[in-house]
């Protein structure tokens, strides 16, 4: 049972790493968007605002909204246990829980926590993918604006 518990904790730690990685990628997306928009947008807007410029600006705004969504602090993540709750559930019982019983209960709780975390992670992953796609379209719109197609 200790092995199953250790694997459950490892899975939860991996999930926490995924969340941190998504936050890092969102930060990188901010940089890439700012760089592309300043480099291309400055050139495109130098000779007025046309339809491609408006499209690029709208895409920039949508990317900004998605980044805010990705970086918004979520408090629904569960990556650790409340020590007071652990004491109440396992130690303060009569008789106290066995180590195997504790591990089993915690494995089931971790599984539930991981499922809840995964729902948030999936939304963030989709938002990141959409934002990257919009960044590609934004770059194209800026290039078309520069070329005045």
Could you name the key traits of this structure?
0% strand; mainly alpha; 83% helix; 149 residues; rod-shaped
Which term fits the overall shape? rod-shaped
Structural class: mainly alpha
Low-pLDDT runs of 5+ residues are none
Helical content class: over 70%
Rg over CA atoms, rounded to whole Å, is 23 Å
Strand content: under 5%
Number of strands: 0
Order of helices and strands: HHHH
Average pLDDT figure? 92
* Biggest sheet character: none
DSSP helix count? 4
Give the terminus-to-terminus CA distance: 66 Å
Q: What can be said about this structure in brief?
A:
With 149 residues, the protein is mainly alpha-helical.
In terms of topology, how is this protein built?
Blueprint (H helix, E strand, L loop, with lengths): L1 H44 L5 H21 L11 H9 L7 H49 L2
Helix pairs in contact: 1-2, 1-4, 2-4
Written overview of the protein:
The protein is mostly helical and 149 residues long. Helix content is 83%, strand content 0%. It is rod-shaped.
């Amino acid at each position: 049972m200790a092995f199953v518990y250790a694997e459950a904790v490892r899975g939860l730690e991996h999930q926490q790493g995924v969340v941190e990685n998504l936050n890092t990628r969102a930060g990188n997306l901010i940089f890439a968007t700012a760089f592309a928009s300043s480099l291309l947008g400055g050139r495109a807007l130098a000779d007025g605002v046309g339809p491609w410029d408006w499209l690029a600006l709208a895409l920039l705004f949508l990317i900004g909204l998605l980044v805010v969504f990705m970086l918004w602090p979520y408090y629904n993540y569960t990556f650790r246990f409340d020590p007071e709750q652990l004491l109440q559930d396992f130690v303060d019982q009569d008789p106290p829980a066995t180590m195997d019983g504790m591990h089993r209960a915690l494995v089931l709780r971790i599984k539930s926590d991981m499922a809840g975390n995964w729902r948030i992670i999936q939304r963030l992953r989709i938002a990141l993918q959409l934002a990257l796609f919009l960044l590609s379209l934004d770059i194209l719109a800026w290039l078309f604006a520069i070329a005045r197609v």
